Amino acid sequence: MEVPLTPIAFARRARRLYSEREAVVDGTLRFTYAQFLGRCDRWSSALQALGVQPRDRIAYIAPNTHAHLEAYYAVPQIGAVRICCAVSARGRHRVYMKECQVNGSAEVSKPCFGYPSSASRAQVA
Questions:
Q1: Beta-strand pair 81-85/57-61
Q2: Are the C-beta atoms of 47 and 106 separated by less than 8 Å?
Q3: Which single residue of 31, 71, 103, 125 has CA 20 to 30 Å from 59?
């Protein structure tokens, strides 16, 4: 049996085998694999409801929290490309983030980090 060695495949396996084990600890918040991956699924569904399609670029900015980890799984799970923007970015990187309208929420298919708006999705991925 061949299984792709991807974070999404690892997550699906963890849900199947260890669903009730603790997976994420973020301060006082604690999630089992089932809870955590359920949150990722709901976020993926919300992105799809907003019109996100496979290979769309999602710019995301967040501190190192459970929300950042959820983005790590939720975005590629639907075939979109996650572009993590550094919280500590300065200068021209902040200009790119403004162009992307990254303010804590996902923004779809906007130029980000210097990619021209005419760039093909394959070049960005």
A1: parallel
A2: yes
A3: 31
Across the beta sheet with 107-108, the strand order is 81-85, 57-61, 107-108
- Distance from the Cα of residue 94 to its chain's centroid: 19
Residue type, 58: I
- Largest Cα separation within the chain, whole Å, is 49
Work out the burial of residue 73: count CB atoms within 10 Å of its CB; fewer than 13 is exposed, 13-18 middle, 19 or more buried.
buried
Ordered by start, the domain boundaries in the chain are 7-124
Token output for 66: 């459970």
Q: Model confidence over 8-48: pLDDT tens digits?
A: 999 999 999 999 999 999 999 999 999 999 999 999 999 99
- Pairing assessment for the beta strands 22-26 and 29-32 based on DSSP bridges: antiparallel
SS (H, E, C) 91-106: CHHHHHHHHHCCCCCC
